[in-house]
Design a protein that fits this description.
The chain is an alpha+beta fold. Helices cover 35% and strands 29% of the residues. It has 3 helices and 4 strands. A hairpin with a 6-residue loop joins β2 (34-41) and β3.
């Protein structure tokens, strides 16, 4: 598996908009191979964190390179104060309940 963790600086009053925007991803908007995502609000006031997981790096890259994902990113970016801080990498462990 492969994915990304991103630190987000959400504009004041736009958290609910970001949550709705990200929920659209899970309703079939992403390229094949999508496994899971989660959005966190840091307790220490350090912003938000987004984690996204795909079955493989190839499927992650195919999604990232798609025009549809570019459009979704541009919509999400309008809800942020700054560009996300991305950290891509191999998922070593995924535990489900």
């Amino acid at each position: 598996m492969y994915g990304t963790v991103a630190k987000l600086q959400v504009k004041a009053g736009r958290e609910a908009d970001l949550t709705r925007h990200l929920e659209q991803y899970q309703s079939g908007g992403l390229a094949g191979g999508f496994v899971a995502s989660a959005l966190y609000r840091a307790d220490d006031g350090g912003g938000h964190w987004l984690a996204v997981v795909f079955e493989s790096r190839e499927k992650y890259d195919a999604n990232a390179d798609s025009p549809e994902q570019d459009a979704r990113y541009r919509e999400m970016r309008e809800l942020l104060d700054a560009d996300p801080e991305w950290h891509d990498g191999e998922v070593l462990l995924r535990i489900t309940g």
